[in-house]
Amino acid sequence: MTTAADIMHPGAQWIPATETLDRAAQLMRRLDVGALPVSDSNERMCGILTDRDIVVGCVAHGQDPSRMTAGDLVHGTPRWIDADAGIDEILEEMRSHQIRRLPVIENKRLVGMISEADLAHHLSESQIASFVESVYA
């Protein structure tokens, strides 16, 4: 069985909720990613920050990204998947919450991230079509 650990992009990295958005953007650039899981003071995931969040939620409102933090922009219940989860569980989690990126957790540690591109390498054409239809509908 193919698992989340098989599909994920390994080496995902947390960013603390107290980190400024300019630093978050710099880390995204260095890691060549468009999203970072955000952790609270107890190193528990409290959300995901995307490059779009920074632009739309901060810059477009005339806010200063060196003064606004990752915690200022994250909201809602963060979603994640266990490293041992199978394809069906991954797809259901992403479909039901209409999300495009999913952190992968193993032993309460962030071990990777699954993106649409990662799925595309491991799914059949019909699975990809069904996923896209449900997430973008």
UniProtKB/TrEMBL annotation:
Transmembrane segments: none annotated. Pfam families: CBS. InterPro entries: CBS_dom, CBS_dom_sf, Diverse_CBS-Domain. Signal peptide: none annotated. The keyword Plastid does not apply. It comes from the Bacteria. The keyword Transmembrane does not apply. Residues 8-66, 68-130 form the CBS domain. Keywords: CBS domain. This is CBS domain-containing protein. It comes from Streptomyces armeniacus.
